[in-house]
Amino acid sequence: MYVTRHSLFNTGPSVPLGIRQAFDRFVPVQDSDISNAMPKHWSPRVDIREDEQRFVILADIPGIDPSLIEVSMDNGVLSIKGARASSNGGTVSDGEARFTRVERAQGEFQRRFSLPESADAEGITATGNLGVLEIVIPKKALPTPRRITINSGH
Fold first, then answer.
1. 3-state secondary structure of 45
2. Residue 79 and residue 72 in contact, taking contact as beta carbons nearer than 8 Å
3. The pLDDT value given to residue 5
4. What number of CA atoms fall less than 13 Å from residue 23's CA on the CB side?
5. Which of 55, 65, 105, 123 is least crowded, fewest Cβ atoms below 10 Å from its Cβ?
6. CA-wise closest residue to 64 among 154, 4, 128
7. Ranges of residues in the chain whose predicted pLDDT is under 50
8. Contacts for 53 with CB less than 8 Å, ≥ 6 apart
9. Where in the chain is the domain with CATH 2.60.40.790?
10. Could you tell me which residues come within 8 angstroms of residue 109 by beta carbon, excluding any fewer than 6 positions away?
11. Overall pTM > 0.70
12. How many CB atoms are closer than 10 A to CB 44?
């Protein structure tokens, strides 16, 4: 489901910034995306690369303790699960400040990846550093071709 709000006011470059900010405070404006519709579940963005020896999955998980993330492998499917704590959506004060906009994804997340048969499930490692989860999946050694000698019946 997509939620789109359209502004009744011209909020282009011809409107002075101060007026635009005042209207945005009382009538939130959304630029044809779904940033204001906060789902209960979200998916971290990932990059996947492959070289001769391994697959590498890099997942963006800023603000989440890597020790609270579950990485598992079952029947050729790699799963990443975790959660980001809620910032209360601006309804509860945080000291003197109140949230007026919440755009960072919150709640539970899960990503699943089907791995090829060449993936070595026993050698998978995961590390978290600076908000990026790196999962390294080594490849199994490929069987080397061999020549089969034909024996003569004599």
1. coil
2. yes
3. 46
4. 15
5. 65
6. 128
7. 1-12, 29-38, 89-93
8. 138, 139
9. 38-138
10. 41, 42, 43, 44, 80, 81, 82, 83, 84
11. no
12. 21
Q: State the DSSP code for 118.
A: T
CB-based burial label for 133 (10 Å; 0-12, 13-18, 19+)? buried
pLDDT of residue 86: 72
CATH class for the region spanning 38-138: mainly beta
Residue 106: what pLDDT? 87
Q: Which residue do the tokens 């998978």 mark?
A: 124
Q: What is the reported pLDDT for 115?
A: 94
Provide the pLDDT for residue 10: 47
Helices (H), the chain: 17-26
Q: Tokens 């704590």 identify what position?
A: 85
Q: What residue type is assigned to position 56 of the chain?
A: V
